[in-house]
Each structure stands twice: as C-alpha cells, then as structure tokens.
Amino acid sequence: MFNVHGVSGVSQAEIHTTETLVPEKAIEKLKRYKSPGIDQIPAELIKVAGKTVHTEIHKLINLIWNEEELPEEWKKSITAPI
Hints:
82 residues, mainly alpha, flat
C-alpha cells in the first residue's frame, strides 16, 4: 500500500499527507476484547506490556518492512464459525 514506485494516479501531495503512526499511537488504537490471532497474544497484553516490548515490536515491524517479506505465520488466520 505504501510502495509508490511505479504507481500511476497518485500525486506527490497525496503521498506526503498520509498520517504516520508512531508505535505508541498504533498500540493505543488496538481494540480491546477481541480474540487474539495465531500468536495468542491479546491486545490488552500488548497495551500494558511497556516501552521495552513496544520498542521490540517496532524493531520487528521495521525489519519486516525493510526486507519486504512477511513471516509465514502472519499469512495465516483463524476462522471460527458462529
């Protein structure tokens, strides 16, 4: 979504007006009381984990972003019929 190389129809002004989420803001926006993903880590735990964990999550996200490859585990989902 943020890869703008070779994209037509997107002006430079549109690219620079995208809000940048710092890790703290992104973590604040996590919804509570949702089922955890395949990692079994609930959003509440991430929210109260503290600066050290938030920094490590940020490093991991940056590494994945720079390598442009998602871990296989992140490509899986859990679907529960209701």
